[in-house]
Specification:
Blueprint (H helix, E strand, L loop, with lengths): L6 H18 L5 H25 L1
Length: 55
């Protein structure tokens, strides 16, 4: 009696779920993330200098 190989169906279902999730993800440019981090850090540093002098 021959054995049935069902592993192909399960593995292809996982790949399809991965690609479906990838298409619906939000894509952000890495340069934007770096620029936002630098701007946020500069704002925190500047506010720390400004409010540090008041107290």
């Amino acid at each position: 009696m021959a054995k049935k190989d069902t592993s192909g169906l399960m593995s292809s279902a996982g790949i399809m779920r991965y690609f479906e999730a990838e298409e619906s993800a939000i894509k952000i440019d890495p340069l934007f993330v770096i620029a936002a981090a630098i701007i946020f850090g500069a704002m925190v540093w500047g506010l720390n200098l400004y409010f540090g002098r008041l107290w």
